[in-house]
Specification:
By secondary structure, the chain is α/β, with parallel strands linked by helices. The protein has two domains: 9-72; 94-291, Rossmann fold. The chain has helices at residues 9-22, 28-40, 44-49, 57-71, 76-80, 103-111, 132-140, 153-165, 180-184, 209-214, 228-235, 237-240, 258-268, and strands at 82-85, 88-91, 122-126, 145-150, 172-175, 191-194, 247-252, 272-278, 284-291. It has a seven-stranded mixed β-sheet, sandwiched between helices. Strand 1 (82-85) and strand 2 (88-91) form a beta hairpin. It is elongated. The structure holds glutamine. Glutamine is lined by residues 97, 100, 195-199, 211, 220.
């Protein structure tokens, strides 16, 4: 139990950090600092300057509660309500996958296409979750029109709010299963991007407790081999992408999925070239395919 106590800010910080260590929480000190700054609405510098001050008594119950829950492996981002992505703060909840740093590689790869698509291209983000991909692309590629799709209304509510808070009101949101809403409307996006659920069903049980018990299964489970969403999207590429001219598709994938997803793109997008972007661990993380341009 992490009970509230009368103590200095410094003492509260180190007590929380030791509590996390005893609970096997990685980056104990970072977690403690983040929660302390969140509860006191201060940044790191202010925290250090105020180290010797008494911990504000009216905040100590909240701090104790959040530290206790973090010790029970509730994700830090669910306690603070935010995760930074591509330099901007995104609201998150149990309704969406917490944006991961790897997904910034997907953004970087897509943004390399800015020159190839001169006149306001249409970009579609399939399975937008928090909206991190769609909102980032809208803000970093101001000429583009961006549509974001998700099957979950609860996720779309989070994504809409992120778009509004971050000044990306131009992003349009559609509810539906993968590419279905795009096909129904007869849209022909120039670029398709997605970080779909890709964990094989049987591996879901072995995920970290933080992920397994707190992040939406809908955003993680990609079916028996984890590849179902890529199959469903790639199958429709000929009907989705423009009949001629430049076209681009990029996916985030899980470990050991890079070659198979690359082959799916090759099989469905004629006359394309493809590539794989490794992450910092050397795992093929972003797969892209490009036609013309
Ligand atoms: N990268 C996530 C994880 O590590 C999975 C995200 C996904 O399935 N798209 O749990």
């Amino acid at each position: 139990m992490f009970a509230p106590q009368q103590e200095t800010i410094r003492e509260a910080l180190f007590r929380a950090s030791r509590f996390f260590e005893s609970r096997g929480i990685r980056s104990a000190q970072f977690n403690a600092e983040t929660l302390l700054q969140h509860v006191l609405h201060i940044d790191r510098t202010q925290m250090l300057v105020r180290f010797a001050e008494p911990f504000p008594p009216d905040r100590s119950n909240l701090f104790a509660e959040l530290v206790q829950r973090r010790g029970e492996q509730v994700p830090l981002q669910h306690l603070t309500g935010v995760q930074e992505f591509y330099g901007r703060p995104y609201r998150v909840s149990e309704a969406v996958l917490i944006p991961r740093p790897e997904t910034e590689l997907l953004i970087e790869r897509v943004l390399q296409e800015r020159e190839a698509f001169a006149e306001s291209p249409l970009i579609v983000d399939i399975g937008t979750g928090s909206g991190a991909i769609a909102v980032t692309l809208a803000l970093e590629w101001p000429d583009a029109r961006v549509i974001a799709v998700d099957i979950s209304e609860a996720a779309l509510a989070v994504a809409r709010r992120n778009a509004a808070d971050l000044g990306a009101e131009r992003v349009e949101f559609l509810q539906g299963d993968l590419v279905a809403p795009i096909l129904e409307r007869g849209l022909r996006p120039d670029l398709i991007v997605s970080n779909p659920p890709y964990i094989p069903t049987t591996d879901c049980a072995d995920l970290d407790v933080e992920v397994r018990d707190h992040e939406p299964r809908l955003a993680l489970d990609g079916g028996e081999d984890g590849l179902n969403p890529y199959r469903a999207i790639c199958r429709e590429l000929p009907k989705l992408l423009p009949v001629s001219g430049p076209a681009f598709v990029a996916f985030e994938v899980g470990i050991h999925q890079d070659r198979m997803v690359e082959q799916m793109i090759r099989d469905s997008l004629s006359q394309c070239h493809t590539g794989i972007v490794p992450d910092w661990q050397g795992i093929g993380r972003v797969i892209w395919g490009k036609r013309g341009g």
